[in-house]
Every structure is written in C-alpha cells, then in structure tokens.
Amino acid sequence: MASTSAPARHVPGFSAPAVGFKEPFAMLEACHERVQRTLALLDRLREHVRQQGADESARQAARDVLRYFDVAAPLHHEDEELHVFPLLLAQAAQEMRTLVQRLQQDHVDMVADWAAARVPLQALVQGEIEGFSESAEALFDRFAARYASHIHHEERQAYPAALHLLEPAVLGRMGQEMAHRRGAPER
User: Fold this and answer.
1) Rounded distance, CA 28 to CA 155, Å?
2) Measured between alpha carbons, how far is 78 from 104 in angstroms, rounded to an integer?
3) Is 147 inside a domain boundary?
4) Which one of 64, 89, 93, 181 has the fewest CB atoms closer than 10 angstroms to its CB?
5) Does a structural domain hold residue 82?
6) Range of the domain at 167
7) Residue 161 maps to which CATH number?
C-alpha cells in the first residue's frame, strides 16, 4: 500500500536505530521502546520541575518530549494504521478485530490526550509557567497510562497475529514504506 504522506526530513530517535526497516515489526517495537524512554523522560522532567523549577534543563527536556510526540509518534501510529490494523480487521478472528478497534480508538484518544498534554509542556518551554498544575499532572498520567496499555496489547497480541498473516514480500514492502515516510535509508 502506498502512502500519500511526504517523507519527514529528520525524525527523533531514528538517527541510529538498533534494528532496520527490513524488520518492520522489530522497528515498531523499537519505536515502543523510544515511547517508553520519552515517557520516562517526562516523569523525570516532572520531578525535576517539582524539585528545582523550570530551569534550562527542564525546558530542554520538555522540548525533547514535544519533539518526539509531535513528530515520531504520529509516524509510528500511521505505520500501524496502514500496515497492521487493516490486515487484522480483514483476516483475523472477531476477538482480534475487537482488540484492533480498541487500539484504533486508542490512537484517536492519544491524539486528544497529547493535544492537551503538550500545552503545559509548551508553556514551560516558553517560560510561561514555573511548574505543572494538578490538572497537567493528571493529563500526563493519563497519557502515559494509555500508552502503557496500548503497547502491551500491540506487542503481545496484535503484532504476533499480523506477523503470522503477512507474506514475506508484503513485509518487505511494509519496511520500505516505513523508511520512505521517514526519509530514512532502508537498512
């Protein structure tokens, strides 16, 4: 399936991936590892702001979190929406189709959660706030919890089921398209 998206010039976390696009499911799981590392950075940022305030280190960490979830995470979701979910919806058993529908709804909810969660991060970067409100902290918690559950179900259920259904040639095209969307070489 061809993508209509223009390739990105630089995606955070893709300068030296441990796996290549020739193994697209390993790449998807590597993206999950980067999500988890970025969420851990967000947790450290929150603690830093509570203890030391909104200094330059905090602003840089907030920029890093913003960059990842603004640029790389949407590409990862697009990979799943184009290559993983349609296959499972078309060929998997009803239980898996129900899970995929929930994962698709997670993507919608994650976009909304991120739109709200990025506001206090951007305000911190711009020097408009010195700390996070209770409501911002709750947004961050909800965003992280949704991702944790989502990743768990994808890696333990959806990815193995899709990998079982994919022909090697289709798997190769999937990796090529993922690399193209990122403007990355197909390693």
Assistant:
1) 9
2) 11
3) yes
4) 93
5) yes
6) 24-178
7) 1.20.120.520
Amino acid sitting at position 69: F
The whole-angstrom separation of Cα 1 and Cα 16 is 26
Question: Which 8-state DSSP code applies to residue 16?
Answer: S
pLDDT tens figures, 74-108: 999 999 999 999 999 999 999 999 999 999 999 99
For residues 76 and 25, is the Cβ–Cβ distance under 8 A? no
| Cα distance between residue 82 and residue 59, in whole Å | 34
Helix (H, G, I), strand (E, B) or coil at 104: helix
| Amino acid making up residue 133 | S
Would you say residue 143 lies in a domain? yes
- The residue among 76, 61, 80, 53 whose CA lies nearest residue 158 is 80
Most distant pair of Cα atoms in the chain: their distance: 53
pTM: 0.86
